[in-house]
Design a protein that fits this description.
Layout: E1 2-6, H1 11-22, E2 28-31, H2 37-44, E3 51-54, E4 57-59, H3 62-72, H4 85-93, H5 97-108, H6 119-133, H7 137-142, H8 144-156, H9 173-185, H10 195-208
Parallel strand pairs: 1-2
Antiparallel strand pairs: 1-3, 3-4
Helix pairs in contact: 1-3, 1-9, 4-9, 5-6, 5-8, 9-10
Length: 218
């Protein structure tokens, strides 16, 4: 039995599940509560997800997990090589990253995800992330109008994202790096999504059998 331990909202975890979905790897999806430290320590000795358990092998780095899933998955479903696009994407988004975190963290515990099903899981996440962003979730949410413009600007300035339909329905390693971050932003109401970027999100989500958060955006 192959198991992938994840948080639904975690971009690093999405890397693993999107490769598994694309490569048609049968696996058990194990969503941990955000404050469940013990399971992580039992698996890999530290609090970190995703974790892949494949037979007797346990792997705890997202890209190492992706490589393993690529290896054991459908050989005909090739993942195209990484190009400079992923780095260009990161550069285009770098200035907006603090605003992105504040928009995302203030909302993600409120959309019904299983990793935040208990008060203690939500409190655990809040304690970590409020320290990281330097304000409470309530303060960050109240400043939505301040944080939307830099992220909208970053979305407008993204490099051209090639659609899977333009490359014979194949996933690329660029997608593995880019899609998870964009997916995280789909829970933010008020963002201005350029049509090509929304089309990219929808196509990659369909290709990898993942959902987006547009229907739950706050």
């Amino acid at each position: 039995m192959t198991r992938i331990y994840i948080y639904d909202h975690c971009p690093f975890c999405v890397r693993a599940t999107m490769v598994a979905g694309y490569k048609k790897v049968p696996f058990q999806r194990e969503v941990l509560l955000n404050d469940d430290e013990q399971t992580c320590f039992d698996l890999i000795g530290k609090k970190m997800l995703p974790v892949l358990q494949h037979g007797e092998q346990v792997i705890g780095e997202s890209l190492d997990i992706c490589q393993k899933l690529d290896e054991i998955g459908d050989a005909e479903r090739v993942i195209l090589p990484q190009t400079a696009l992923a780095e260009q994407f990161s550069e285009a988004f770098s200035a907006a990253q603090p605003a992105n975190w504040k928009l995302n963290f203030a909302r993600v515990t409120r959309i019904g995800l299983p990793e935040f099903a208990t008060d203690s899981a939500r409190d655990y996440f809040r304690g970590k992330k409020e320290e990281m962003i330097g304000e409470t979730f309530e303060e960050a949410f109240a400043k939505t109008d301040e944080y939307l413009p830099p992220v909208n600007q970053a979305l407008a300035n993204l490099p051209t994202l090639t659609l899977p339909s333009e490359r014979e329905g194949r996933l690329s390693w660029d997608d593995v790096m880019i899609f998870p971050m964009l997916r995280s932003l789909t829970l933010v109401n008020g963002l201005e999504w350029p049509e090509p970027v929304r089309n990219y999100l929808n196509e990659v989500a369909d290709l990898t059998r993942l959902d987006l958060y547009f229907d739950r955006a706050i």
